[in-house]
Amino acid sequence: MRERQRFYGFIAGLGTTSGTRIVVGRWTTTPYGPFSDVMIEKPTGQRVLLAPSVRIAHLISQTYEFDEVGVTPVTVLVDGADDAGNGPGPGTTWTISSAGLRLRFTTGGRMPVGRLLGSVPVALASRTQWARAVDPVASVVMRGVHTRGTGRSGLRAWYSPVDLHRIETASGTLAGKSLGSLAPVDPPTRFGFSSTPRTPSVTKVVSTVETDVT
Length: 214
Description:
Layout: E1 2-16, E2 21-29, E3 35-41, E4 47-51, H1 54-63, E5 68-71, E6 75-79, E7 93-98, E8 101-110, H2 112-117, H3 122-125, H4 128-141, E9 148-150, E10 156-174, E11 177-178, E12 182-183, E13 201-212
Parallel strand pairs: 4-5
Antiparallel strand pairs: 1-2, 1-12, 1-13, 2-3, 3-4, 6-7, 7-8, 8-10, 9-10, 10-11, 10-13
């Protein structure tokens, strides 16, 4: 038996000059309460998930594929974001800490596509029909990006973006080694049916995910 669950939050995607690509999820409203997770693809191609609990790790692994899963605290602090999850605006700083990862980046202005997305009412964006309708456009405008797809377990997922801000700077370390400076997400990440935009950015998103009910 399956049910659909809805998640509201932000997805940050960036590359680094070390060849590491990172996707950070900061989910402010979910059936499980607020949480954050990190997906890392190393230069070797190894795909790693860092999740704050076994339950969240299992949930994400139903949709995406990893070579290693770590259940560990994930701390994401966002300067300038309020309790309602609004933001990020220009100059917002994200600080991420988890299991050997230390990452800090700042956001810039709204990207042109973000201006269009911001005009879409959240009530409309929350519908899976909307994600289905915009998928052909998203895949052309942002290479490697899809707003709907089927996960590794056969469960479906829909992503409706409602805002998009550029990431301007980034720095950090992984396992004590420098990540280098900010770089495009190139090649696209290989966690599942969709990557993040090639340009490092933060997307405000409404996600609907099928889950198995036991």
